[in-house]
């Protein structure tokens, strides 16, 4: 009990991670998250819509890529669906496509986005489930499948939103990121 009280007090007043487990932390009524910029309240536009995969393993890597490599800290909206670009072109789940189309339309008007970035990743379970194991059984085959889907997604996005720039990337589980042109 004393440890829990200490952790709660530490989390309430600390601007750093408190080290509590989820089960301990969720008992709190108040949390503090340090704002990334002092002017967040005044910001109303973002240049980019990022469409990424839901995979929990790559949350930090995607954020670092967007911030460190593309200079997009506090300058993007984000949608995550299984397979990223695959979610936009996959016919088995048309509501995923519809969601991406509707969000793109919304943020284009709301936040004045000028570009869309698809970020796929190697080792994606959605590709295995929806495209089949044979298409992703080697890194070369998997990369080729991502390239095909990213190019299809780019073409489709440009057809629906011709005024937006569209980019595609493949994030490797080793941290390497390849732009698909």
Which percent range fits the helix content? 40-55%
From the structure provided, what is the oligomeric state, counting identical versus distinct chains?
single chain
Question: How would you sum up the global shape?
Answer: globular
List segments where confidence is low: pLDDT < 50 over at least 5 consecutive residues. 1-10
**Which strand order spans the largest sheet, edge to edge or round the barrel?**
2-1-3-4-5
Largest sheet: 5 strands, mixed
Q: Compute the average pLDDT.
A: 89
Query: What's the Cα radius of gyration?
Result: 19 Å
Counted beta strands: 5
Q: Termini distance?
A: 56 Å
Our count of helices gives 7
- What sequence of helices (H) and strands (E) makes up the elements? HHEHEHHEHHEE
* Fraction of residues in β-strands: 15-25%
- Please state the structural category: alpha/beta
In short:
This protein is an alpha/beta fold. It has 7 helices and 5 strands.
Keywords summarizing the entry:
single chain; 181 residues; alpha/beta; 5-stranded mixed sheet; 7 helices; 5 strands; 43% helix; 15% strand; disordered N terminus
Please describe what this structure looks like.
It is built from 7 helices and 5 strands; from the N terminus they run ααβαβααβααββ. By secondary structure, it is α/β, with parallel strands linked by helices. Strands 2-1-3-4-5 form a 5-stranded mixed beta sheet, with helices on one face. The termini are far apart. The relative contact order is 0.14. The N terminus is likely disordered.
């Amino acid at each position: 009990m004393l440890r829990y009280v200490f952790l709660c007090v530490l989390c309430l007043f600390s601007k750093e991670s408190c080290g509590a487990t989820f089960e301990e932390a969720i008992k709190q009524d108040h949390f503090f998250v340090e704002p990334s910029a002092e002017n967040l309240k005044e910001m109303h536009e973002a240049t980019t819509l990022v469409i990424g995969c839901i995979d929990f393993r790559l949350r930090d890597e995607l954020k670092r890529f967007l911030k460190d490599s593309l200079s997009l800290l506090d300058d993007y909206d984000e949608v995550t669906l299984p397979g990223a670009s695959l979610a936009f072109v996959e016919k088995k789940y048309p509501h995923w496509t519809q969601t991406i189309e509707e969000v793109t339309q919304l943020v284009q008007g709301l936040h004045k986005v000028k570009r869309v970035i698809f970020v796929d990743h190697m080792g994606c379970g959605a590709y295995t489930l929806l495209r089949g194991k044979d298409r992703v059984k080697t890194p070369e085959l998997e990369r080729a499948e991502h390239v095909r889907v990213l190019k299809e997604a780019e073409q489709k996005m440009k057809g629906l939103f011709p005024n937006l720039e569209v980019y595609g990337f493949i994030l490797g589980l080793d941290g390497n990121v390849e732009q698909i042109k």
